[in-house]
Design brief:
The protein is mainly α. 47% of the residues lie in helices and 0% in strands. The chain has two helices and no strands. The chain has helices spanning 2-25, 60-70. The termini are far apart.
Length: 74
């Protein structure tokens, strides 16, 4: 009897859930208004300087650490 009660309760829950889902599908949805186009930005005038692709020299602290590791600085 207990298993019959559980099956009947499960069936009732599934029936109620399916009813609520079907009720939500019939909602009239209004489409949102179209978004305005973003403004177009066109660079004019000064040009950018060319990119420097040379490797950068290590900073002073890195040189100090390298010299300390080599034994040049006590």
């Amino acid at each position: 009897m207990k298993s019959f009660k559980n099956i009947l309760m499960g069936f009732a829950i599934v029936a109620v859930m399916s009813f609520t889902v079907s009720a939500q599908k019939k909602d009239d949805k209004k489409d949102p208004p179209p978004k305005p186009k973003p403004p177009v930005v066109r660079p004019e005038g000064e040009k950018r300087p060319p990119k420097d692709d040379r490797p950068k020299k290590p900073s002073f602290s890195m040189g100090f650490v390298a010299a300390r590791l080599d034994g040049e600085i006590d």
